[in-house]
Amino acid sequence: MKFGEFMVQLKKGVPHVLLLAGEERYYIDRALEAVLAQLFPDGGQRDGLTKLTGDVDGDQLIGLLETVPFLIPQNVVVVEDTTLFRAAKKSAAADGDAEGDDAVASGGMKRGKGAKTKSSADKKLERLQAELLAMPDFSYVIFVMGEKPDKRKKLTKTVEKAGLVLEAEPVRAWNINDWLQGKLQSMNKDLDRDAYEYFVNAVSMMQQISLSYLDSEFDKIALFSKARCITKQELIEVFAGLPEVSVFALMDAISAKDAKKALALLARQLADGTYFTVLLVLLARHVRQLWQVRLLMADGVRGKALAKPLGLHPFIAEKLGRSAARFSDAQLRQSFLDIADADYAMKTGRGGNELLEHIVIELCT
């Protein structure tokens, strides 16, 4: 289940078995802290908390869970970076049995075809599964992994049956709204129209979205802003230090084919110390997106429907669709080649900022 649903279920009580898995570490950390806050409501020292990392012996884990706590109310075991739920390697599952790799994940050898007796690893895994389905009232186990779990594995199905599974999917520009609305609600704040448009544009320019960064920056705004509504100017002050965000005005000018404004913005970026490599990467990305939009539109994909295949916010995808109509495939193809040539020339000292100006002028023609 996704983070929002997971947190709602958590309010009903902490199950004795949890799996926090996925690429978005921000959600995993938030979920883990929420679980521990409920299990240790007094805060301070968390007596009874045991942390394990990596490959864990099943019988050792069972021993920890079965140990009756002494002078503490409960045992809480956190298994970080677990491999127990990892997808099987193809070589280990060559016989096509999706379940057969459980033995490998538990640290043992997979038995061959036709084997009538179970290996010690298989038996160990079965004991762990039985333990998770009948957990002692005084013990909790939290598995954490930074990738998707293999849902075909018996152990994953066991955790789903016995407790809760958080699927922490990475956040992209096209699905940032869920996080944004939740964050604004927790802050008791809103974004006005201009601020929302700026935020969406800023996020769309980020090579990799860091929710931890966004979370901390919005907390700063909440700390110093007295008004309920966050303004565009406040967001500009937050994101001004990120080159890939501050440069999106240049991309907008190129999209509008406003050469005079685009060249002025390029000169400002260079004067502010933005490296040419950053500008080339962002120019290449923008040209590639315009080209992709044209190809998708040729196949009948238009408007907000462009968002998902491009991995962009619907507002940005729709805006790119309008901009792409001003360019030809030949122009974008040539600009992409010019960017590649400029990258080589500037890195080898055979060209300067005039190559960037040439690319901008050609795109705005």
Task: Please state the overall shape, judged from the principal axes of the Cα atoms.
Answer: elongated
Percent strand: 5-15%
Strand order of the largest sheet: 2-3-4-1-5
Binned, the helix content reads 40-55%
Which structural class do the helices and strands define?
alpha/beta
| Spans where pLDDT lies below 50 across 5 or more residues | 91-115
> Quick check: average pLDDT?
86
Order of helices and strands: HEHEHEHHEHEHEHHEHHHHHHHHH
Number of strands: 7
Radius of gyration over alpha carbons?
26 Å
Largest beta-sheet details: 5 strands, parallel
Distance between termini? 49 Å
Number of helices: 18
Sequence-ordered SSE layout with sheet pairings:
Blueprint: H1 3-10, E1 17-22, H2 25-39, E2 49-53, H3 58-66, E3 75-80, H4 102-105, H5 120-133, E4 139-145, H6 154-162, E5 164-168, H7 176-187, E6 190-191, H8 193-205, H9 211-224, E7 229-230, H10 232-239, H11 243-246, H12 248-255, H13 259-271, H14 276-298, H15 307-310, H16 314-324, H17 329-347, H18 353-364
Parallel strand pairs: 1-4, 1-5, 2-3, 3-4, 6-7
Helix pairs in contact: 1-2, 3-5, 5-6, 8-10, 12-13, 13-18, 14-16, 14-17, 17-18
